[in-house]
Each structure stands twice: as structure tokens, then as C-alpha cells.
């Protein structure tokens, strides 16, 4: 029901995925009057899907608290998340209200053991290939331990999606002043360096322009700076697209050039289209929830569905949980050892 | 002496500015062996400039504390800043080490009365025209009062440079979660709304993609998020330039198209070139200091010089000081009134 286009985008997307991935089964939650007519256009989809009518649909401008109050138990969004909790579904995909989806997912699925706060991870195209950037807006601020958890969660996602055995990780920081960055970022860097995890290759601090370069596979930051970075990059891409369009229409020569190079421009447009590199992934919860861009077309929503599928297939949650357990166990051990040292010193 | 190219970029830039703006006089600080040969190539510049030999040059990789220790009193950077303090110069322009320049400028010029911390303001091209974005990396974090000071400082700069009598101002924030943004940002928003300053038109929160759109004339944020936004935008611009170059070489048709549209592409390249929209301006100090991009060419450095000139000509410092005094006076008055109310309540 969510996103700018609702069922008219979601159902054709599922039909497309169904032909590519016949092993996927869909449970579709929504209002009958909106979904049934769309489903009728894709009779082949009926074999691989089940439709569940839900009276309530969370609106795109509902506040998260409102959505929880009115939509808990009744809305299509809640029911889709609950299906993951109950084990009926392996992943929940929605193009709906991000804040409401996060609030419901946190409430219903809860965070993983020893993870305090969830993150939203974005797949960010770069000059090399793609990277995972998190958190892009689930939480504001975050202490060092949360940044380390984000690093482990993001690494698990990069491993599941890109097939890199030991993804490289950077902490987003600034490089202007001598005493660089926030205390939490420096402390998280120290923790990651000392942990020497076999599952991730910590590369130190990175700056904003390293995201587009693809310096590391996973870029870790708290949600305020991460959301601003993501939105700023989207804004810059649209701005340059605007410049390009204006430049190509300005002179006769440019217009002729454009006609010849139209194929190349279309490719470029796809590459720059933020709705295509689709899917914010909610990490740190006991279940996989993918948020598709609200303005995504069918191809974009299909990409979000396949993103969820890849993470399920690659057992993202199990591997991430194992890594987080390992880190926390070592850290406890480290603290115990340190405490012993202090004790010995005092005794001496 | 600073920047990637030193005197070989700075001196031709001054020569170019001198022909456009014969009313400007330059005092050039640097090492004789580096500057004299360049000066010899532009004999016309000798009439409008004075050269002062300085034994020490701050290196691009010096730490700010190092630069202060070894360069205070002796370096070309320090002497240029001190000329502003002594009234010999109206503005200092440098392409050198940003951290060192800020440390020396703070130490030598001090912050304006009732301004706690300086900011670096960037001129950011957008789809509408240009905006001022600050702080892009002078300080990490910042309380509500500092954000309000930045708003007033940025407004003064926008007025001086763009000639807008009452610039519009937005506070950079995120829009995903219900409880949006940091406490300081919300508090700063309340203060700006209640102040109802005649010098600025406060428009509320803006998001990262509003910078490229040009939603407001002045975008205010603390230095961590601001620096990440700036670097991310630079990275995205370079990334898209990379895509564009690849796309235009991929097929014969694209290559033919490129030949026709070459003029348009060159214009676009200029527009996307970060070294052209040049000049980080240090605001909040008792003097005008402009930091040119280290990688700037002569045209870029000349733009930074003219930026400094425009701010001097438009009496930036006087107007900004008047606005800040007005705000703080009102705020004190507000607090007094409130204190009286409380007192009356207690008496009642």
C-alpha cells in the first residue's frame, strides 16, 4: 500500500521477480480494493502468492507514534512485519512511511541480543562498484559501541550482497582540524582496531568524498551525519542532471550531439537515478526488513525484493549475530583481563 | 606559499585581479626564492603590490599546533594574518593548510565579541544560483547559541556577496524519525523563530537535498555534518563526472555525439569543478580570512581574492557585528523579562 504509487508499482514488480525467481513465495498485505484489480492483471502471479486483506493502511505522512497507535495489529505494514516475526515470511519489503516502518519493526521484531539500536543501511553506488553506508537515519547520535555494532552489521550485509569474504570498513570522519572528529568516532576506531576481527578489515577514518570513490566496502557513521550525506549526494546528483540537461539544450551543436549520444545519456540517467540503487535495509533487528524508496518504479521495487531475498539466502542474520556475539565476548574478556591487571597492580 | 602550486598559481592570479580591480593593493608574503621569479614575469603587478620576505612557510601537512609553534611571528601565513590585525590589510587570502590557517587566525585575530567559535563558510552552487553553507569544518558539534551565531554570520556573508537584503536561512536537519534531529538544532530553530530578526528570514529545517536545490540562501549546521556534506557532494560530483566520461567513450555514436556537444561539456565541467566555486570564508573572527582551495588554479585563486574584496567592500564585519549585538541584546532582554515574570509569580 505504501510509496508514491502503491499496488500499481508493487504488484508488477512482484510479477517480474516471480518470473526470475520462481522459488520465492509472496504474501501480499493490503486493502482489497487497491490490490485485487492489480493482481487480476497478472494471473501468473497467483500461483506464487497469497493475498491477505488488511483494513488499515499506514499513510505516508503518519507520524510513527500515530501509525503504531492506529496500525498495530490491523495495518498491512504491521501484518507484513509480524509475518517475519512468526516465521511465516523470511523478509518484509515495504515502500511505505520509513519512520512508521522502523517504529513498527523495532516494536514487533525487537533489536538483536546485545544490539542497542537499529540502523538503516543504504547501498551506495561508487566509482569502483557499490558500498554499504550506515546509519542513514534510524538513530541520531550514537556511542562508540553502537558504531562498532553498525560496523559488524554493515559488514554482514556487504558479505551477503557483494560476496566479499572480509569487507573493508571505514569510519566516516572529518579531516580539517587537528583534533579530528567526535570522541565517539575516535573511541570506535580504537575498539575496531584492537578487536582485530577476522570478519572485517578495519581501514581507519574515511571522509565524505571517499564514499563516491569507493575507498571501503562499508562506511559507518551515526544517523544524523549519515542521513545528511545521503540526501546531499541525492541532491547533488539531481543538480548535475539539471545542469547536464540545460547544457545539452543550449546550442544547436549540443542538441545534435545529444541525438548521437542519446544511448549513453540514457545509461547515465539510470546510473544516476536514486530510485534504482534501491533499498534501505533495517539492520540490528530480529528479522529482515527492506525499505524501498517511496518514489521507486516497478524495477526499483523489484530490486528491493531481490535485495531482501539475497540477504535471506546468504543467512545474513545468523552470521551477523555470530560476529556480534564474538565481539562482545572478546570485549568482556578484555575488560576482565584489564580488571585483573588493575587488581594485581593494587595488590603489588 | 600554500596550496598545491604555491606562487606559480598565486602570482598570476593577482596579476589577473590587478587588471580587473586596479583599486586593490596586494601585500605578498613568502619566501624570496619562490616568489621573486614569479613576480618577475608580471612587471605590471609591481605598481600595485609590495613583497615581504618571510623565512618560514607553513607546510600543507603541518599540524595546526606545529604550525603555531614554528610559524608564529615568522611564517608568511602568520604575517598575512597579522597584517589584517594591524590594519595594514583588509583581508587575508591563503591557499595553504586549512587547520593551520584557522588556528593562527583564531590566535591572532580572536573571535568577535559574543561569538564563541568561528565557522568556515562555503559558497555552494545550486540549481537556483548559490548559497552559503556553514560550518563546513571549523568546529565539531555546537550548541544552539553557536548555530544561531552561524546563522547571523552566514546571513551577513550572503548579503555582502549576493546582494540579498534579507537572506533566507535554513537549519540542516534529518527527516526520517518522528523526533527529528538533535536537541541543539531544535533549540536553535526555536531561538531563530522567536528572535524575528529583520536581517534574516528563518525558514525552518532543511534536508541535505535542499542544498543542491537552493531552497534557502544560507544553510546552517555544525562542522561535523557540514564537512561530511561538503565532501560527499564533491565526491558525488567527481563520481558523476567519471560516469559521464565513461559513457561518452563507450560507443561510436556516443563519441560522435561528444564531438558535437564538446562546448556544452566544457561548460558543464567548469560548473562541476569544485576548485572554481572557490573560497572557504572564516567567519566570526575580527578580520576577514579567505581560504582558497589548495588545488585551485589561477582563476580559482583569483575568485577567492575577489570574494575577500567583495566582503570588505560591503562592510561584512560591521554589519555582522551589529546583528550579533542586536540578537544578544534582545536575548538578554528576553531573559530578564522572563526572570521578572518568574519573580512576580513567586511573589504572587
UniProtKB/TrEMBL annotation, chains A, B:
The lineage of its organism: Bacteria, Pseudomonadati, Pseudomonadota, Alphaproteobacteria, Hyphomicrobiales. NCBIfam families: plsX (TIGR00182). Homodimer. Probably interacts with PlsY. The gene is plsX. It catalyses: a fatty acyl-[ACP] + phosphate = an acyl phosphate + holo-[ACP]. This is Phosphate acyltransferase. The keyword Acyltransferase applies. It is found in: Cytoplasm. Its main location: cytoplasm. GO terms for cellular component: cytoplasm. Keywords: Acyltransferase, Cytoplasm, Lipid biosynthesis, Lipid metabolism, Phospholipid biosynthesis, Phospholipid metabolism, Transferase. It comes from the Bacteria. Its EC number is 2.3.1.274. Pathway: Lipid metabolism; phospholipid metabolism. Pfam families: FA_synthesis.
Amino acid at each position: 500500500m505504501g510509496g508514491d504509487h502503491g499496488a500499481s508499482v508493487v504488484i508488477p514488480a512482484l510479477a517480474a521477480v516471480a518470473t526470475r525467481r520462481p522459488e520465492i513465495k509472496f504474501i501480499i498485505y493490503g486493502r482489497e480494493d487497491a490490490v485485487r484489480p492489480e493482481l487480476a492483471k497478472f494471473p501468473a502471479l497467483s500461483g506464487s502468492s497469497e493475498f491477505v486483506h488488511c483494513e488499515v493502511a499506514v499513510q505516508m505522512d503518519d507520524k510513527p507514534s500515530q501509525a503504531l497507535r492506529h496500525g498495530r495489529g490491523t495495518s498491512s505494514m504491521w501484518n507484513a512485519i509480524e509475518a517475519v516475526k512468526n516465521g511465516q515470511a523470511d523478509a518484509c519489503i515495504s515502500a511505505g512511511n520509513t519512520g512508521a516502518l522502523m517504529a513498527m519493526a523495532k516494536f514487533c521484531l525487537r533489536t538483536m541480543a546485545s544490539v542497542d539500536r537499529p540502523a538503516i543501511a543504504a547501498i551506495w553506488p561508487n566509482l569502483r562498484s557499490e558500498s554499504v553506508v550506515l546509519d542513514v537515519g534510524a538513530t541520531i547520535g550514537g556511542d562508540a559501541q553502537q558504531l562498532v555494532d553498525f560496523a559488524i552489521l554493515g559488514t554482514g550485509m556487504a558479505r551477503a550482497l557483494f560476496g566479499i569474504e572480509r569487507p573493508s570498513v571505514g569510519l566516516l570522519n572529518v579531516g580539517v582540524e587537528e583534533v579530528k572528529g567526535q570522541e565517539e568516532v575516535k573511541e570506535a576506531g580504537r575498539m575496531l582496531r584492537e578487536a582485530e576481527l577476522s570478519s572485517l578489515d578495519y581501514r581507519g577514518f574515511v571522509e565524505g568524498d571517499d564514499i563516491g570513490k569507493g575507498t571501503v566496502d562499508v562506511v559507518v557513521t551515526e544517523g544524523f551525519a549519515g542521513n545528511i550525506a545521503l540526501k546531499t549526494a541525492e541532491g547533488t546528483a539531481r543538480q548535475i542532471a539539471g545542469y547536464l540537461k540545460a547544457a545539452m539544450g543550449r546550442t544547436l551543436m549540443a542538441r545534435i550531439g545529444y541525438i548521437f549520444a542519446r544511448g549513453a545519456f540514457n545509461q547515465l540517467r539510470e546510473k544516476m537515478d536514486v530510485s534504482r540503487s534501491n533499498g534501505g535495509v533495517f539492520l540490528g533487528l530480529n528479522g529482515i526488513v527492506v525499505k524501498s524508496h517511496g518514489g521507486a518504479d516497478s524495477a526499483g521495487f523489484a530490486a528491493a525484493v531481490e535485495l531482501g531475498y539475497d540477504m535471506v539466502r546468504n543467512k545474513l542474520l545468523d552470521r551477523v549475530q555470530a560476529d556480534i556475539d564474538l565481539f562482545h565476548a572478546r570485549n568482556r574478556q578484555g575488560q576482565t583481563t584489564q580488571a585483573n591487571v588493575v587488581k594485581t597492580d593494587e595488590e603489588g
